[in-house]
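Q: Could you fold this chain for me?
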Amino acid sequence: FHMKISASAPTKVILTGGVERKIYALTVEGKVANTYIAEHLVRFIRKGNILGTGKEYAAVVFARTVRGRDSYFLQVFDPADLTPIWEKNVNIARDNLRACYFDLLTADINKDGADDIILSHGWRDNGKLSAYDKHGDKIPLPEYEWRGITSPTYRMNRIVHVKSPSLKDEYLLGLFGNQIITYNLDLTMREVS
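A: Sure. Below is the predicted structure, expressed as structure tokens.
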């Protein structure tokens, strides 16, 4: 994906990474502009106005192992030079060694002007989401109720942010197996279809 390096400059960068424990910043022509060598595997990279300054930053989830079921770390980077802004351990596998994350999204769910970082939990949590603010602090959420969710075979919850000015509505959609979960911005479930 493309990231604007600053709100005023037209320069863009493409960030990518993976199992080799590196984040690459590529020019739009595909040349390597910068590299960050990470301690762990890169699972997800998403952009957003995470600090609320109007500039896009990169939210990155790292996993200690290839399967990602050991420890997870959330880190925010400045895309201009891949400088880390902050890092948090967001491990959900403490109670369940098979717990993992399946997606990452940025959206301003608490309406403070900064995009929050939303992580979708693995299949055993039936569509549960977690959220972190611009400082990396976990956002308190209402208790998650997963009524109406069946146990489909393939259950990686892929999430997207939907903002419809014409309908004056904003929500998240999760594709969980063969079901679509609609979430309110407080990450409670609105409906399952």
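A (continued): The chain has no helices and 15 strands.
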